[in-house]
Design brief:
The complex is a heterodimer. Chain A is α+β, with helices and mostly antiparallel strands. Chain A has helices spanning 3-19, 21-57, 71-82, 95-105, 110-119, 138-151, 168-212, 215-223, 228-265, 274-280, 282-309; strands at 61-65, 87-93, 127-132, 160-163. A 4-stranded antiparallel sheet of chain A has the order 2-3-1-4. The radius of gyration of chain A is 32 Å and the shape is elongated. By secondary structure, chain B is of the alpha/beta class. In chain B, strand 4 (56-61) and strand 5 (64-65) form a beta hairpin. The chains are: A alpha+beta, B alpha/beta. Chain A binds chain B through residues 4-5, 8, 15-16, 19-20, 216-217, 219-228, 230, 311, and chain B through 49, 51, 71-72, 74-79, 83, 89-93, 102-103, 105-108, 110-111, 150, 154.
Chain lengths: 311, 226
């Protein structure tokens, strides 16, 4: 294919797009609708993901140490825990800090504070708060801690008093949170996928109808001796144009939409602002939306023209 | 040049469109195919363009068996034959100029040739002033003349005109026939189908008469007899 042919193909495609104004308008509109749904799917996915992640982040594990556990041993253990691949972060609360926290929480409860003063010494042990990277990793971390404890040479006093993961109640809560977020994610993804597939089918059909209206033209082109490729190519150019323009329109539509949504929903959806997501990931979104449009237009046109080329 | 060798076309419901048709066309001939509607004229034409496949027999164009031309080469083959139809078959979204230019582009001609040949050929059919009009801005006669211009622009060996005057008034009919005669005088073979008695009688050329899928007459200098 030489340069002149390519030039002719593009000129024919552009001219046809322009002259069949209403048909082009309708096709771009349908394509915009499809791409808009795909875009919504992306944003919904992001919101779903971050919201669920926030829920999951609420889970943690507390390791309570005995009151006489030496601080250097606890810190050594913290270093070990930090080194585990499953652990996201740890926070050490010393016995003194724990007492201060306790006092603060109960500052209006004179009776408890008096009882504490009566004791004379700090009844609270140090605490290590552990956050795992994944909600399902807590079991492994708890087992690791228990194992470390068991390895201690006999005679040395145990330093871990209690790991709350082994409380039945805590374990149930963590497991249920894990189940709910996992299934919510799957249900969300399936719904999104169905929507996307349906709209893609609609936009395929629209392009088919568009090209159906050109079937006689295709027959005439064949009769005057035009080759298959030469007939098909301008339709592909048109299809790509529909997709490209629809992609640009969709991206433009999302600007005010995410701005408005971002303001009114960021507190509701656990802090994620769709607007800042749109701005931060603009290049990626542009590539996905416009790219989907172009590929969709290309494939749909190719399949639609193929039908009428078999004369 | 063109040879129909015992061509039959029988459709799935046993209706017969062509039955044992054999005849040949010499280069430079002007032949008319006449017959009532449904006599098989259009089927005969479609065979030559490989739009229809015969149930038995074969059609040769020069030494090529038309129905053995691969799809890939079909465009190249069809460019040897110019076609004119009753319903014009112009591309509605292209101007007169672009319709003719399209046929030239399809034949791989360069821009320079297109720019010089298209106005010339439109002049030849007396449409030099309607060069940028779209088909729906032209009368039936004018549209048919654009179609003829498109058919001849690539200088084909044969022009097939399938009822080209079917939709036209007597004045336009006369003009179209005159144009076809002129083209024939320049050496192009013409195959014309029609059921216009006046056209046939004025031509005084070879006439093939068809009835119910069969050739019933083949006269050197024929008249419309049915």
């Amino acid at each position: 294919m030489n340069w002149v042919t390519i030039k002719r193909i593009f000129r024919t495609g552009f001219l046809s797009f322009w002259r069949n104004g209403f048909v082009s308008f309708a096709s771009v509109l349908m394509m915009t609708f499809t791409l808009f749904i795909i875009g919504l799917a992306i944003f919904t996915g992001v919101i779903l993901d971050t919201t669920l992640q926030q829920f999951r982040d609420k889970a943690d594990m507390n390791v309570y140490f005995t009151t006489d556990a030496p601080e250097d041993q606890i810190l050594a253990l913290q270093t070990q825990v930090n080194a585990l691949p499953e652990v996201a972060s740890t926070q050490y609360v010393s016995a003194t800090d724990a007492l201060a926290n306790f006092r603060e929480q109960h500052q209006n409860d004179q009776l408890t504070l008096q009882a504490l003063d009566e004791l004379g010494e700090n009844p609270l042990g140090a605490v290590l708060n552990i956050k795992a990277k994944d909600i399902n990793d807590y079991g492994a971390i708890a087992n690791f801690l228990q194992g470390q404890e068991a390895l201690q040479t006999t005679g040395t006093p145990q330093i871990i008093d209690k790991i709350n993961y082994f409380d039945q109640q805590h374990q149930d809560a963590v497991n249920r949170l894990s189940q709910i977020t996992t299934s919510a994610k799957w249900i969300g993804l399936v719904i999104i996928l169905i929507f996307v597939l349906v709209t893609i089918a609609i936009s395929f059909n629209t392009l088919r109808l568009t090209i159906y209206s050109s079937r006689e033209e295709i027959a005439v082109m064949r009769l005057v001796g035009a080759g298959q490729g030469y007939i098909r190519a301008p339709f592909l150019v048109e299809g790509v144009m529909y997709g490209f323009i629809a992609g640009i329109i969709t991206m433009l539509l999302f600007y005010p939409l995410t701005w408005w949504l971002g303001r009114s929903t960021s507190s509701f959806f656990g802090g994620i602002s769709v607007f800042s997501y749109y701005v931060d990931h603009f290049a990626l979104l542009f590539l996905i939306i416009v790219g989907s449009g172009v590929v969709l237009g290309l494939i749909a046109s190719y399949l639609a023209v193929r039908r009428y080329l078999r004369v | 040049m063109i040879y129909y060798d015992r061509v039959s076309k029988i459709y799935a419901d046993n209706s017969v469109a062509l039955e044992d048709v054999s005849f040949s066309v010499e280069p430079g001939e002007f032949i008319s195919v006449v017959g009532h509607s449904g006599a098989g004229k259009t089927t005969l034409i479609k065979m030559l363009l490989a739009e229809e496949v015969p149930s038995s027999g074969s059609v040769f164009f020069e030494s090529i068996n038309v129905h053995e031309v691969p799809t890939r080469k079909m465009g190249e083959f069809r460019r040897k034959i110019g076609t004119v139809f009753q319903d014009f078959k112009l591309l509605p979204s292209k101007t007169a100029y672009e319709n003719i230019a399209f046929a030239m582009e399809a034949a791989g001609r360069n821009e320079e040739e297109i720019r010089s040949d298209v106005p010339h050929v439109l002049e030849l059919v007396d449409l030099g002033d309607k060069i940028n009009n779209f088909p729906d801005e032209l009368s039936g006669g004018e549209q048919q003349r654009v179609a003829i211009a498109r058919a001849i622009v690539n200088q084909p060996d044969v022009i097939i005109a399938d009822e080209p005057t079917g939709n036209l008034d007597p004045v336009n009919t006369f003009e179209i026939v005159q144009i076809l005669k002129k083209i024939n005088d320049l050496g192009t073979t013409i195959i014309l189908t029609t059921h216009n008695k006046g056209v046939i009688d004025s031509l005084k050329k070879r006439v093939i008469t068809m009835d119910r899928g069969r050739v019933i007459r083949d006269d050197r200098e024929g008249k419309y007899i049915l």
